[in-house]
């Protein structure tokens, strides 16, 4: 990836720093439905689609469902927002994860390029000491310029590696923030939604039981009142028949004369009172049945709310697993890239030590063997970084060995052999530059 592309990717992820991460996810929550942002075969989308039908349909007739009409909008909004926040968290994780490997490759290529340039500066130092260096008049100005250029070049390589590692560290912090803060916050809200819904359901079931018992008692009262009224009516009919018979007998014996009468006034009053009580009880019973129907409608709504809360809860393990995977990927990439950064730092120290010895500490006493040994130590470190550096490393080593201009000291020969062994280990391997 080119440096400009890396810079653009980095600018894209900057809004997701710790200070602005929550707001970025909030913006994701307000973005179009997750179906437009997640692949159709996404496990998250499939599970959500199965449990969150369009419109969050409620069971029953909405015209009579007063509870659903007053609460549906609120908890549907909460659940829908939670769903979008879960999708937003997964999108954020996927976005950050997609930037990690390109950053490693891009920053790695930049660092390797800088190291190649730095090794060319080291090659110039090797050329500077070729032949019978110790017998020549010292050229302090050229020496100082070459060593300063080498130090500066390796510092540029170290800066490139440090910048890449810093970007990876930022990505890692964002992943941790998503897992520990964003997803954890959603999990707690989903748990609260489940808990409050379960409590509401339990309370509602108690109300339903009480209302059912009340309605049942009223039905029993109406039944007993009807039986009492029917008994009184039957007694009145039977007595009226007896009166008619008695009147006939008295009329035959004594002429038109009414026999003894039972006074039905109190009985009629009692029947009327029972009828009025039945009407009141029937009205109360109708109201109880209507309340019971509404409570059952509420229960249907709450049960659907609980099902949707459970569906949200079922989504979280997958998102948490993605966060863990992204975190593991981030740690692995940081660990690998840290080795490159550490090597770049080590090279800066080695060339700095050589500069210190040649220019400041030992000055005139710093002979060719010290230069050669120091340059080969730098080659040893460079040979273990990446196969892209093997050509430059070999150039420096061959310049020292082939143009030494006399017998090489044992420590210089050993250092050259060590460079060869290091180079063999990376020979044939794929360079980060080729990815």
From TrEMBL:
Keywords: Coiled coil. Residues 201-242, 271-312 form a coiled coil. It comes from the Eukaryota. This is Uncharacterized protein. It comes from Cercophora samala. The lineage of its organism: Eukaryota, Fungi, Dikarya, Ascomycota, Pezizomycotina.
